[in-house]
Design a protein that fits this description.
single chain; mainly alpha; MgtE N-terminal fold; CBS-domain; Tetracycline Repressor, domain 2; 3 domains; two-stranded antiparallel ribbon; 22 helices; elongated
């Protein structure tokens, strides 16, 4: 049975395919499946493909010697990610079993914050002197490729190891082997310091369409490089975290789905905010109960007004929160965005106000045109207000130093419920003499 499974795993063309197969089995069986992979490099790449949330559960089932053997085959950025997930005692035992050079590399990268340029950079890179010939650069690229290191550019340094330029691989192939690198290199280089936030790194890749980016210290010494695949992981991670924050939870819930109490603790705080605002809504309905009892038909349309206002507010807040998260918007853009969203809310309010008003007039009230007019104006004002609050609420939270993605979801929705109730009931007062 094991031989058949071993043959099957060997036949899978890519580590990502093996990772998908592993995920069909319990995590407790993964170590045994990994041991069936004979190629150490392939085994390491399979582990690198596994979601970070499962690393600790997997690695704690392996001994420090096995983990060290896996890490030896990894690029430095993947190796440090693995080490960082280990419990302290297992981390020290694993580091002790690494060759001195690799241990020093891992320790160097562990010194940088996880969400910084230094935390996602690789130390393996193609580095040549400016006075070196093309043949030397090609030889360096060949050595790295033979070690399964991805090479996207050759970085040029001076005698002090300071970055002075870069050369694309295509340029190395089309020029004579004796030509000097300094005659080919591009000196207009975009680079980052190791403590720059990974979100800023991702923005640089997007802005300049980069495939790789060098990392330098304060004296411009070349210390590492970041590849586009690392940035894709960053963007995916940031988008996932933002979506979860807007839903009032966090990525920790996905990493530990079986932990019921931890999940509840993560969700409780902002649901408490939603509960508080909802109780305000309930108090308003209780306060206006005598009026609503006299106008039962009007009461039937209140959920419609609240729901449509909440949806519009969520749309507006999502656009702003995404802009703030990606750096495409800041607080100085709020007046412009507020003006735009109010106009959008007006257009949608008129359209859906007409639709709801026609339904109220001809289907639900025996042709009471006054009810249709009431519903129309309530829908228009509720959607305009919701669109405005969808911009102002996240902006206020941002100004107060609160992550708007965490609070804006429940905050905006329940705030729009309150304003929707007030708008609908106040306009109802104006039409009281025409209602049943």
């Amino acid at each position: 049975m094991n031989e058949d499974l071993k043959t099957y795993l060997a036949s899978l063309p890519h580590p990502a395919d093996i990772k998908e197969y592993l995920e069909q089995s319990p995590v407790a069986e993964w170590p045994q499946l990994l041991r069936l992979i004979d190629d150490p490099d392939k085994r390491a790449r399979v582990v690198a493909e596994i979601d970070e949330g499962n690393w600790q559960d997997l690695l704690t089932q392996l001994g420090p010697e096995e983990i060290a053997n896996i890490i030896r085959e990894m690029e430095s950025d993947d190796a440090v990610d693995i080490i960082a997930k280990l419990p302290l005692n297992l981390r020290y035992e694993t580091l002790y079993r690494l060759p001195n050079q690799e241990r020093q590399q891992v320790l160097e990268l562990l010194g940088y914050p996880e969400d910084s340029a230094g935390g996602i950079m690789q130390l393996e890179l193609a580095r040549v002197r400016a006075d070196a010939p093309v043949s030397e650069a090609i030889q360096r690229v060949r050595e790295l490729v033979e070690d399964d290191v991805q090479v996207l550019a050759v970085w040029v340094v001076d005698k002090s190891d300071c970055l002075v330029g870069s050369v694309e691989l295509a340029d190395l192939l089309i020029h004579k082997s004796t030509r000097l690198i300094k005659t080919l290199m591009d000196t207009d280089i975009i680079c980052v310091r190791p403590l720059v936030d990974q979100k800023e790194v991702a923005e640089l890749f997007q802005k300049y369409d980069l495939l790789t980016l060098p990392v330098v210290d304060d004296e411009n010494h070349l210390i590492g490089r970041i590849s586009v695949d690392d940035v894709v992981d960053v963007l995916t991670e940031e988008a996932e975290e933002e979506a979860l924050r807007m839903a009032g939870t966090s990525v920790q819930e996905l990493r530990h789905p079986e932990q019921v109490f931890s999940t509840a603790r993560i969700r409780l705080p902002w649901l408490a905010v939603a509960l508080g605002c909802s109780l305000v809504s309930a108090s308003l309905l209780r306060f206006f109960q005598p009026l609503l009892e006299q106008m039962v038909v009007i009461y039937a349309f209140l959920p419609v007004i609240m729901a449509m206002g909440g949806n519009v507010g969520t749309q507006s807040s999502t656009i702003l929160i995404r802009g703030l998260a990606t750096g495409k918007s800041d607080l100085s853009d709020i007046p412009r965005m507020l003006y735009k969203e109010i106009r959008v809310g007006l257009i949608m309010g008129i359209f859906y106000g007409i639709c709801a008003g026609l339904v109220a007039t001809f289907l639900l009230s025996d042709f009471n045109h006054s009810l249709g007019i009431l519903v129309f104006f309530s829908m228009v004002f509720a959607m305009i207000t919701a669109a405005g609050l969808g911009v102002l609420a996240p902006a206020l939270l941002k100004r107060l130093g609160v992550d708007p993605a965490i609070a804006a979801g429940p905050f905006v929705t329940t705030l729009n419920d309150i304003t929707g109730i007030l708008i609908y009931i106040l306009i109802s007062q104006l039409f009281k003499s025409f209602t049943v």
